[in-house]
Amino acid sequence: MADPIDNNSGKYTVQRFPAVADPADPGYSRCTTWVQAVSHGFHQQRRDDEYLAKTLTAYQTDKRELTGVYVNGSVPDHSLGADVPVATYATMRKALNIGFGRQLEAHLVTAVTVRGTHRRNGILRGMITADLEAAKDDGLAMAALTASEASIYGRFGFGVATFERSIKVDTGPRFRLRGLPQGTVEVADPSVLLDVAPQVFERLQRLSPGSIDRQEYYRLVASGSIGHDGKPDTSVRCALHYDLSGSLDGYVSYRFKGWDHKPYTMEIVDLVAASNAAYLDLWRFLGSIDLIDEVTWVEAPVDDPLAWALEDPRCIEASEIRDMLWLRILDTPAALQARSFPVAGRLVLEVTDSLGLAGGTWVLESDGGAAAVVKEAAGETPDLSLDAADLGSIYLGAVSPVTLAAAGRIQEKTPGAALLAQQLFAVERSAHCLTHF
Ligand SMILES: CC(=O)SCCNC(=O)CCNC(=O)[C@H](O)C(C)(C)COP(=O)(O)OP(=O)(O)OC[C@H]1O[C@@H](n2cnc3c(N)ncnc32)[C@H](O)[C@@H]1OP(=O)(O)O
């Protein structure tokens, strides 16, 4: 990667290296220092050796590429050493479900930090622009991230594509679900999730638009093998869902918030259901736990079947609808070609991109079946003009182009084009992403 700050040339050196998990590897200490710098950037505690070892093992499994920006030359006495990066950035590649069972390899950006004493010098801009260019050169059509603040990444062409919300569910007497169980739920030792969580998630990954294949860390957290402090979290419990044929298709892991917390509450650590029945049956189970008045979940879908399955939907108290997955189209024709469009239609899309990666004008022609043709528009007038960030937002069908047109973000040049885009980009079930990274 080039020096991230053109006008500060010579001040910094950028190093890009793979995560290594072997303490005997000469690159190990560079990785541990990098992880400490990330913790510093997110105001977390200094990590102990156990945490570092577990984290780097997981990072290596995910084939994470780490970037550190280092100050050249000496640093003042007593300050953090020159071996501690002033900025961090990491990437890995995972599948994104883009609807109708299609998967697109996405370039995931994570662990972005710039030390306070080096901020607003263009270090992030330098790192991210160089990285997105390299990912495109490598043949990827899509980048993605989850953001700490909503004000940072729009300028780099990322658009919000899925949302999540926090819910508190009253599981007292008024918690009653319509219908009958479609399978069975059994309590299990949470350690089984080390094996079965990835299998169940793989089924969800095939089912759910917006889903991103999970990093290694998730099965460790779901099973309680690692808590926030890096130590095993022995308060984690789990239950498994089996369909009518006895096949495992869902799990929930959860922890009790304690007898000093009222109302008595179970907190969902992870809930993965690979069928509608598994989702409702797991909720039926959660609602039946004795001595518990409330179940909380911070990664709930906004368009939640639970609300429609409850006899009293007001059992759910929802708050904090948040942007979740941000998408960045790197290659417009490749990203469009990858999608399946459920209705027939033709749109000329003019895409602008301040980073010069995804801009241009293309004709999208769908027969409403498997095939979509995307070709460069030869002098045709666009039906819609939009920024790459807005194309990222509408790509999974969770953000309406009609709403973005109303907001003045998308220009509708042909009346009705935004509605046609909404129909074209629709997916078979509401997009939701359960993978934070
Ligand atoms: C995917 C993830 O990892 S999300 C996590 C992001 N990291 C954090 O929130 C940790 C705390 N914050 C930080 O470490 C830093 O402030 C960062 C990474 C957000 C920004 O790094 P910097 O090197 O200061 O950013 P840089 O100087 O390159 O700024 C680039 C542009 O973004 C803008 N910007 C940077 N941070 C912010 C912010 N928090 N809010 C709004 N705008 C911002 C700058 O004003 C600048 O705008 P311009 O180029 O259009 O004029």
TrEMBL record:
InterPro entries: Acetyltransf_17, Acetyltransferase_Eis, Acyl_CoA_acyltransferase, Eis_dom, NAcTrfase_Eis, SCP2_sterol-bd_dom_sf. GO terms for molecular function: aminoglycoside N-acetyltransferase activity. The keyword Transferase applies. Acetyl-CoA binds at residues 112-114, 120-125, 148-149. Residues 231-329 form the Eis-like acetyltransferase domain. Coiled coil: none annotated. Keywords: Acyltransferase, Transferase. The keyword Acyltransferase applies. It comes from the Bacteria. The active site is at 153 (proton donor), 437 (proton acceptor). One of its GO terms (biological process) is aminoglycoside antibiotic catabolic process. It holds the Pfam family SCP2_2. Residues 333-433 form the Enhanced intracellular survival protein domain. Homohexamer; trimer of dimers. Belongs to the acetyltransferase Eis family. This is Uncharacterized protein. It comes from Paenarthrobacter aurescens (strain TC1).
